[in-house]
Amino acid sequence: MRSIIQILLVASLSLLSAFSSYAAEKISGAEVINNNCARCHNARAVHEFSIPEWKVIMPHMREKAHLTGKETQAVLEFLELTSQRAPLAKKVASEKMIAPDGKQLFVQFGCQGCHSLKGDGGTVGPALDETIKNKGIGFFIKKLQNPQFNNSSSPMPKMPLNEQQIKAIAQYIKS
Amino acid sequence: MNMLKLLPFAIATAVASGHLLANEQQNNSRFALAGYGDVKYEDSELMDTSAFSARFVPIFLFSLSDQMHIEAETEISVDENGETEIELEYADIHYFLSDTTTFTAGKFLLPFGQYGPNLHPSWINRSAFSPGIYGGLGGHGGYQPMQGLLPVMSDIGVGIQHIIPLGKNQKIFFDVYMTNGLATEAPHDDEEDAHDEEPVQDEHEEVVVDEHAEEEDEHEEVDDHALELPELAFEATSADNNSDKAFGGRIAYAFLPGIEVGASYYTAKYDDDEKLGFTATGFDINWMGNHYIVRGEYIKTETDAFEEDEHEENKVITFDRNGWYLQATFMAGKMFNVLQGTDFVVEYAETNKINEAERWAYGINYWLDSRAVIKATYEDTTVHDGEDDKRFAIQYSYGF
Predict the structure, then answer these.
(1) For residues B266 and B176, what is the distance between their CA atoms, to the nearest angstrom?
(2) Residue B143, pLDDT score
(3) Domains along chain A with CATH numbers
(4) Which is it for strands B372-383 and B232-233: parallel, antiparallel or unpaired?
(5) What is the CA radius of gyration of chain B?
(6) Domain boundaries, chain B
(7) Which residues of B are less than 8 Å from A34 in CB distance?
(8) Which CATH architecture best describes the domain B31-399?
(9) Residue B31 pLDDT level (bands cut at 50, 70, 90)
(10) Which pTM was predicted?
(11) Is B29 in contact with A52 (Cβ distance < 8 A)?
């Protein structure tokens, strides 16, 4: 038993040095959720708990899911971002009134953490390349305004996005 | 009993103060109440009974600081005699030593395999029953025809967790722990007293299993090994009958988001003189695809016992047992829109060498949302040296 542990330790430490760049990277909270939060149970909806509650729940899940402290922090930041209210969305919008930047929003809200686009990205959600073509822009807008509207167990968070911003994201996905 | 009466107040106070705190410090609460509950209707052919049962399992979470986190889970249920049972499933403190290392002390869920630490809450488990190799833990009420291999979920002691991230999608998990471990089951005339002190589910089970064995004894000659397998008390206690601690750990490899495989080990001396040991080795897999989940575990146990030789001297012999289960869930709802929220589940389990049994289980689940589910499970157990059992359950479970 002991020698197995030693071999594994040495092997994993050498692997670790090869991968250590991960630690320096900025971690995407959406990606951490995609990678860790559907393995044991259905991913829970963000709106079920308040942010102060999430701050106490996440250390519980850090231990269960074997997350690093940085990953835990990234999840919390993402949850905080998505649970902000509409006023902020308006503020963001007014700053960039002329045309919201779809690509920037797509990155900021971690869509690709859970969805793939052009073959790259997360897998808890379906690939987004064909969604608008197949289901229409109306569906896309409705889905982003209320992700649970057609699927009550959807883990997709409701984002603080206004219609204009959603259309900008759609534009970016189609491009 | 007084404790029981106080409990609702304690919960209410805790909730109220949690809310107050949450309101006071908008961004940094220190308390959260979570947990799960379920209602179950179970119909068993062997026991010739059908009954409703209910459980309420609140989880109390506290963040003392960025480093310190406290968690406690109690299970409140009503037993066969109408008595309210309260069980402390876990109560421990985590100390986050670094980004990747966590120290844990208290009563905690043992990181052995995946069912106990990760999958047993009823809103997570895809079956209304627990896997056969875990006996009645966290699933079956009352008598359970399959004898579990490692019927322990939590114990008191200390543990360390360490994570090695290998890039974004791969990780290695290490968990090691030291706990009080096991003892020999109390002699049978103490049964009554033991019940009063410690209303623990397993006890009922083991008692019944034993009656069963005695019954067989009258009818036919059975393999005496089966009778001699020592009964071990797995319930966590605040005292230890010997100074030898249980020691164990798990190494797992995760290929995220879909796969986690692990190997676990547990060993302890259980008698007062520290001569007899119990060892369990396990392998587990949790594999999650787009439309399916495959979960399984294999456990092998070695239990020492004394046997008198010709010279009436005790020599140690070892009983081997093993068993495994594999559960496949097909999330039909993710494939066909009309079946949204529906799962189909098939599970096979067997225990070998001593108390041999096999079980097939079939289930349909319907998810109302991501944490509320109605499960219907049918289970067919074949017991080699005993009566077979068929049972059916409908369970409504919710996480909160």
Answers:
(1) 10
(2) 66
(3) 2-82 (no CATH), 92-174 (1.10.760.10)
(4) unpaired
(5) 22
(6) 31-399
(7) 257
(8) Beta Barrel (2.40)
(9) very high
(10) 0.83
(11) yes
